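Help needed: design a sequence for this.
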C-alpha cells in the first residue's frame, strides 16, 4: 500500500501558485491550475535546474534558465532545449488537505 504525504490545506494553494514539497529526497512542484492540482518533479530535464520559480502560462511552466516549456498537467517537455518529460505525481484532497504520493516505487 502506498503512503500519502500531506502537502497543505487545499485552499491554501491559490490558482497559478506553486508550492515545493520534499518527497523521498526529491523536490516536487505542486501547482493549482483553476480547480485542479498537479505535481511535477522540480528538475528541468535539460540541465537539472529548478522549474518551480519559472513563469506559469496556462498549464505550462517555463524553465527560468533556458526557456524550455513543460506541461504542468502531464510533465511533457514541449520545447527545446528539453526533450525528456519530467515525472508527475498523484495528488488527492483528503479531508480538505492536499496529499501527494510517490508512485515510482509501485511495481
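Sure. Designed sequence:
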Amino acid at each position: 500500500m502506498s503512503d500519502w504525504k500531506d502537502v497543505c490545506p487545499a485552499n491554501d494553494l491559490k490558482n497559478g501558485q506553486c508550492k515545493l514539497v520534499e518527497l523521498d529526497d526529491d523536490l516536487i512542484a505542486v501547482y493549482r491550475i483553476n480547480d485542479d492540482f498537479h505535481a511535477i518533479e522540480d528538475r528541468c530535464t535539460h540541465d537539472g535546474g529548478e522549474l518551480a520559480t519559472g513563469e506559469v502560462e496556462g498549464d505550462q511552466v517555463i524553465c527560468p534558465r533556458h526557456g524550455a516549456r513543460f506541461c504542468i498537467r502531464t510533465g511533457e517537455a514541449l520545447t527545446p532545449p528539453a526533450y525528456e518529460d519530467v515525472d508527475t505525481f498523484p495528488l488527492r484532497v483528503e479531508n480538505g488537505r492536499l496529499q501527494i504520493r510517490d508512485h515510482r516505487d509501485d511495481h
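Strands lie at 4-9, 18-23, 26-33, 36-41, 56-57, 60-62, 69-71, 91-94, 97-101.
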